[in-house]
Amino acid sequence: MMSSTRSMPTTAPARLAPAGIKPWVLSVRAASEDSSSSTSSSSLAQSTRRSILGLFAAGVTVGAVAQKALADARSIKLDGPPPPSGGKPGTLLSDEARDLDLPLKERFYIQPLSVEQAAARAKESAKEILEVKKLIDKKAWPYVQNDLRSKASYLRYDLNTVISSKPKDQKKPLKTLTSKLFDTLDNLDYAARSKDAPKAEKYYAETVSALNDVISKLG
């Protein structure tokens, strides 16, 4: 009895696509993705070109404006630096106080005056010093100190101006009276700082007497 043998196929069967998905759908999707990527790259390139062109245009505009400004610029003649003190009108008072080459005694912030004007301002300062009596009565000690120190600085400066103009035989007695006056003012200032009303009254009375002695010599 002869047995018949059936030959097996030698080639593998073709691979089928998953159920429900057609091969042409995959191809379309891949093509769509490639198209989107190409479009994005193209848009990015165009945006970059526009940015570069914009920067170039801005640079050209700025360069043109700068060239026009340079063309319109006018030369300005500069003089040399002014003298350290009083090189320009109205600057002497501020310059003197900052001029380190000047002697310290000459570097005052107070406006220098003629002898007659200094004497008049000294008398005015004396009157204002006497007005601190109202503040002493109120025991407004900080205000007493402020007024004394402010007016005394002007008074000292102006008295020195007047004394320097006096003959030699009149300078010494006037300096003595002035020294006594400012010692008394210092005592009054200390009494105000200590808030000592009795001593403030005492030294105020002495200040009045010393001021009268000095002012009477000014003429």
Automatic annotation (TrEMBL):
Compartments where located: Plastid, Chloroplast thylakoid membrane
Main location: plastid
Keywords in alphabetical order: Chloroplast, Membrane, Photosynthesis, Photosystem II, Plastid, Thylakoid, Transit peptide
One Gene Ontology MF term: calcium ion binding
Top-level taxonomic group: Eukaryota
Region (Disordered): 75-94
Name of the molecule in the record: Uncharacterized protein
Species the sequence originates in: Picea sitchensis (Sitka spruce)
